[in-house]
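lol forgot to send this yesterday, sorry. struct tokens for the thing we talked abt
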């Protein structure tokens, strides 16, 4: 079934590449780190987020990058599947329209509510079809392949034991039916313990989505046992510093890999799912009147490459659809998923931030 879906997408979109798409170099590895709910201006202040702002200045940043919607969940789907698929809430990946007493499906009787399991192709399926590997690395995931909606720290002796440190609404991949049913799900959906093992063994996949837990991705939590710098209502500056420190640690670890030091092209991206608050800024494939695609705010997107440009500030308007299109170009995939193909709507590849510089090789 999934093979036929991908074939249909290929038939519809194979001819959509532009000169800018053809200028995106081939990449061997791309690692996308996603943080949560912060505006561009909040993060690009060196006093607030010294690691991210330093990396943006040294490598490259998209200064006009936008999310698709509020709240979080559908932005991950936009990145991985090229659409929000009608989702405009953070309900669990298995929720369906209709009455439900499941506490994770609280909006199921609301107007415009849709099935949260997506039966369409995603970037991982495209990569598999091309012979490449992919993984989602999620901090505090209970076990590899877990279908948990939320999970805490089992070693904690306070409220963090059951707190939503891991949250499937920030997974993206788990919303797709093909991932839920995948016999290899435990290989693709893994925790940070596996990230550390894969870095140590130099066996990182072609594509990785890397999502820290809700204390370390700037989302924040409240309640018993929550550290002060994880509670953004009381210490927003501390929450940003905590997430920034985690990003710095992850980037440093990835830059110590053999792949990073090799002739292979490698990129590390630092992005956000949506902006703070509920502002409706958007671009590039969004539809302002749509309930699930109206624009999710102006957010940071930093592109760090081992052989690419340095000190680049790209003012072109981009969205998660633009990033997906760029990934499909970089991995030489034969089609663009969903709104990633919307050239007429301003969805273009992030070519200036990925161009390989000969003197960097």
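and heres what i got for the seq, position by position
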């Amino acid at each position: 079934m999934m093979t036929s879906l991908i074939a249909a997408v290929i038939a519809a979109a194979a001819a959509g590449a532009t000169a800018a798409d053809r200028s995106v170099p081939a990449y061997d590895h791309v690692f996308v780190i996603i943080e949560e709910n912060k505006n561009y201006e909040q993060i690009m202040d060196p006093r607030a987020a010294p690691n991210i702002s330093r990396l943006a200045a040294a490598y490259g940043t998209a200064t006009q990058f936008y999310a698709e919607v509020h709240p979080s969940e559908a932005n991950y789907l936009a990145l991985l599947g090229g659409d929000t698929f009608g989702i405009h809430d953070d309900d669990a990946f298995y929720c369906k329209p209709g009455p439900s007493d499941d506490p994770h499906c609280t909006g199921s009787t609301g107007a415009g509510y849709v099935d949260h399991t997506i039966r369409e192709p995603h970037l991982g399926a495209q990569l598999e079809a091309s012979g490449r590997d992919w993984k989602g690395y999620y901090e505090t995931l209970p076990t590899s392949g877990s279908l948990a909606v939320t999970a805490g720290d089992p070693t904690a002796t306070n409220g963090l034991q059951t707190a939503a440190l891991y949250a499937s609404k920030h997974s993206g991949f788990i919303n797709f039916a093909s991932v839920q049913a995948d016999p290899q799900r435990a290989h693709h959906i893994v925790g940070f313990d596996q990230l550390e093992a894969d870095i140590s063994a130099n066996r990182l996949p072609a594509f990785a989505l890397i999502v820290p837990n809700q204390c370390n991705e700037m989302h924040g939590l409240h309640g018993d046992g929550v550290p002060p710098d994880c509670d953004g209502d009381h210490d927003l500056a501390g929450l940003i510093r905590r997430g920034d420190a985690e990003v710095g640690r992850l980037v440093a670890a990835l830059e110590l890999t053999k792949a990073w030091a090799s002739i292979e092209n490698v990129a590390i991206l630092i992005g956000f799912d949506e902006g703070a608050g509920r502002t409706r800024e958007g671009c590039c494939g969004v539809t302002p009147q749509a309930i699930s695609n109206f624009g999710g705010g102006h957010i940071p997107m930093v592109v760090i490459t081992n052989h690419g440009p340095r000190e680049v500030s790209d003012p072109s308007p981009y969205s998660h659809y633009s990033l997906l299109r760029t990934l499909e170009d970089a991995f030489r995939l034969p089609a663009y998923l969903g709104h990633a193909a919307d050239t007429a709507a301003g969805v273009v590849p992030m070519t200036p931030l990925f161009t390989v510089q000969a003197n960097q090789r």
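The chain has one domain: 2-360. anyway ping me if u want another try
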